[in-house]
Amino acid sequence: MPHRPHVLIMQSPLGLLGPLLESAYNVHRLWEHPPVEAQELIEAAVVLGEAPLDTAVIERLPNLKLLACFTSGYDGVDLDWCEARGLAVTHAPAVNHEDVADHAVGLILASVRRIVDGDRSLKAGQWRFEERLITPSMKGKRVGIVGLGAIGEAVAKRVEALGCPVAWWGPRAKESPWPRAASLVELARDSDVLVVACRADETNRGLISAEVIEALGSSGLLVNVARGSLVDEDGLIAALKAGRLGQAALDVFETEPTDAARWADVPNVILTPHTAGATGEAVQGMVMLLMRNLAAAVAGEPLITPVARAR
After folding, report:
1. What range does the domain containing 227 cover?
2. Which residues are catalytic?
3. Which residues contact 44 (CB under 8 A, 6 or more apart)?
4. Interval 88-125: pLDDT, tens
5. Tally of structural domains, the chain
């Protein structure tokens, strides 16, 4: 019988991968408490990249070769810690950035054109011709993008097609068709819509601070399709309640799942449950990259999509 490598799935939301992996691997699920003897056999662990890595579990796996992030993001993984232990890390880049950009634009349109309000009004029997809902136009809205990576660029192209001037900010300058603001606060001050699309790590937690929110102002819209940790969520809620921020549209939250009661009395906000990149096509792409990276790792071959460290 050919050797079947052992793989550990770390988080229960990834449990659906089990049947796919079982065609080629012996699969262990951490929440099912694998037997102690399996620790010596596990060669790869599959993780949600945004979830904090349980390093205590990893340290009990002496033959672990690979930490495979199912997602594109890997902000829950301490790369320095992994590197010090000779542990390779892979992820699924360039798979769902177009889908996330589509979702971001959907959130912008839903907010500016008050699509959700219109839906609720009609369903509540409140449609009156003499009380037509009048909304602003998208054309001419100044859109600022925080982080001009794959998602940020895709958002920029989409909103530009809607007639919106685009600017951006990131910590490092790069060539781009759109101007880079001198600072994040300046970008917020000069934007009608601020889209958060940057990578998250411990260095930029709370990047969208009270100062940035105040700069965006009482007529501004904040859209976050990156990570909840990037936004001062308490400050955001306070600003919305006080009218110091016009609107917010969020797909990601400081704690997930977020408590619905936390948002029950918050005005002018549209929320989606971290689904911006969750399309069938994107998931298929993630599965394909996961399988290829696992196969490469257990065969001792070069990994397909290792995490590229910024130096």
Report:
1. 97-271
2. 227, 256, 274
3. 5, 7, 8, 64, 65, 66, 67, 68, 294, 297, 298
4. 999 999 999 999 999 999 999 999 999 999 999 999 99
5. 2
